[in-house]
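Usage example:
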Amino acid sequence: MPISRDFFARHAVEVAPDLLGCVLEHQTEAGLVAVELTEVEAYAGRSDPASHAYRGKTRRNAVMFGPPGHAYVYFTYGMHFCVNMVCLGEEGSASAVLLRAGAIIEGEDLARARRTRGTARVASRDLARGPARLCQALDIDLRLDGADVCAAESPLQVRAGAGNPVSSAALAARGDDPPGTPRRIATGPRVGVSSAADIPWRFWVDGDPTVSVYRAHVPKRPKLVTP
DNA sequence: ATGAAGATTGCCT
DNA sequence: GGCAATCTTCATG
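Running the assembly step on the lines above writes:
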């Protein structure tokens, strides 16, 4: 059973930490690959300068303005895809959660084959460590832009984490787990974002090896022209 | 029309 | 740690 649409019908900042520990899976002809999410980021709409929805609806971000529980996939840097879960934005606005990293829990061989370039072996922890890597491991591209992740017949779905009604990581962070559970949710500024860098809307499972390394935004230096 | 920057990654020193 | 790859989107003239 996919997760219910109500889960996504909240603001992204509320949904984001609850997604940690949930499972994203993509069924293709080649097979199934599933990841348990360990790192996400929330993006709002009009009020968030770092959001793709900040300047209103365009062809690229149209899905963000649609109903919650759908995948918003975009192409960036001329070569990479990133995937978001659409949530409920403010009126006439939009919000979504960027899936930044996860641990492969099913279909590791297939994921590794997709991620392998040349002969170097990709370490397990690196298979979906980073938003573009996650998409490559699950073979997510623009064909899945707008896909309903709450529909049972959808090739791309989100499920609750094993053994928990919502998210094992989120429950652990709330202190509802049995003593000894090491997982806690950490928060901090979003990665690679130039504006609103002070807003801590990045959430990750503290200490998890599949969480991507933090990189602050670095503006490109203008080309120097020699006379 | 033209140019710069981007929710990134991999390879080089 | 620095930079190229590669193309879409957005700002400016």
